[in-house]
Amino acid sequence: MRHREPRRKPSSTLPTLSMGKADGRERADDQGDRAHENRHESAGRPHGSGPQTTAGTTFADPAYVSDIVFKRILAHIVDSAILLAIMAPIGVFMILTAVATFGLLILPFAFAFLAMRFLYYAGFTASDKSATPGMRMLGIELRTAAGGRPDFLQAFLRLAVYYVLIGLLTPLILLVVLFNAQRRAIHDMVSETVVVNRLAAATA
Q1: In sequence order, which residues have a C-beta less than 8 Å from that of residue 154 and are 6 or more positions away?
Q2: 56 phi and psi angles, rounded to 5 deg
Q3: Which of 38, 102, 108, 159 has the maximum number of C-beta atoms within 10 A of its C-beta?
Q4: Whose CA is closest to 87, among 58, 120, 128, 44?
């Protein structure tokens, strides 16, 4: 009796094709996952945001900081004189009242003087002129690192850091302005601000 070999089924490409489809689906899933991650990351950034702007790029022109340290010192002297003229009469009243109350009001009056300085500097630098009267007289102004005008909170933070540093590290800490291109003090860096010459090229 003749032995009959089992018939071999023709080879099929279905497994290969199905594997190809599976690979395609995996690649599509991977691409979808990556797209979802990209959308998720972009959702956390402002629309159209590019590389972070720094004072070094915004105010790269040396004209912005020409003689700025000398002008800042003169502006501070002018503003201090203005504040003294405003606060002197109030100060006399506060001293007489403190004496009459055996010193009980000395601490509240000291805080009142400090509050007036905060309102003066933060209020003027956060205004539409971005400068105190002394700064305007010297032709300088306060700007954000991106070139805009600082708001009141930013100006307030800048002044608060200034007083904390002066109190803890003495005024010598202000010498930091001599060691960076934009002549920024530490309180400028922390508040992301910069004092510059008022030029037509400054952004609005």
Answers
A1: 126, 144, 191, 192, 193
A2: -65, -30
A3: 159
A4: 120
Alpha helices in 101-132 (DSSP H): 106-125
Structure letter (DSSP) for residue 5? P
Distances 49 to 37, 52, 126, 190, 192 between C-alpha atoms, Å? 18, 8, 25, 22, 18
Q: How buried is residue 78: exposed, middle or buried, by Cβ count under 10 Å (0-12/13-18/19+)? A: middle
* Tokens 């996952």 belong to residue: 33
pLDDT in tens, 119-157: 999 999 999 999 999 999 999 999 999 999 999 999 999
Letter for the amino acid at 54?
T
Q: What is the CA radius of gyration of the chain?
A: 33
Q: How far is residue 116's CA from residue 136's CA, in Å, rounded to a whole number?
A: 20
Of 115, 95, 114, the closest CA to residue 105 belongs to 95
CB 124 within 8 A of CB 152: no
Q: Which comes out higher in pLDDT, residue 50 or 102?
A: 102
Tokens standing for residue 163: 């007083």
Q: Is the dihedral of CA 41, 46, 47, 48 positive or negative?
A: negative
**Rounded to whole angstroms, how far apart are CA atoms 176 and 169?**
12
Contact 51, 180 (CB under 8 A): no
